[in-house]
Amino acid sequence: MSENQNNIYEQMPVEDYIKNRLDDQMNWFDKKSAFNQKRYKYFKKAEIGLTISLPVLGFLPLCDYSYNKILLVLVGAIAAYLQAWSHIETYYELWTKYRTACELLKREKYLYQTHTGLYEDTESPESSYHLLVNRVESILAAENSQWNSVIHAIPSNLSHNQGSTNS
Question: What is the DSSP secondary-structure string of 16-78?
């Protein structure tokens, strides 16, 4: 975040910054974290359920041998696809990164509102507000950087998955 951008935020009234920037970002991170958590758990549960069903399906005489074999191959392929998809989409990484950012922003807001932590020793409400803006914008800039690294890791996830399925 540029110094100029921080100056724009520092010129906003405190209530506007908290409502339109801090609370908005906390809500966004909270929703995105919940979305990625649900997706991650959905894919993992489906993958585990299908994987566990493989030996059971192999043991049960559901139909003639050739159909049973086709069913086992399909269930195994679907389980492998779900595993690969969850690696590509990085649901777990995004879930944890978004949750961490949300919690850091909440902590910063509560420290500011209660005048504790770093905000306890500021000379004036104005300097306390400037500190809040700088710290929140630093958290957001760090999160953007981390998000960028996760997104750039997707091609390596793809090649890693392809390498593990080809061996």
Answer: HHIIIIIIHHHHHHHHHHHHHHHHHHHHHHHHHHHHHHHHHHHHS--S-HHHHHHHHHHHHHH
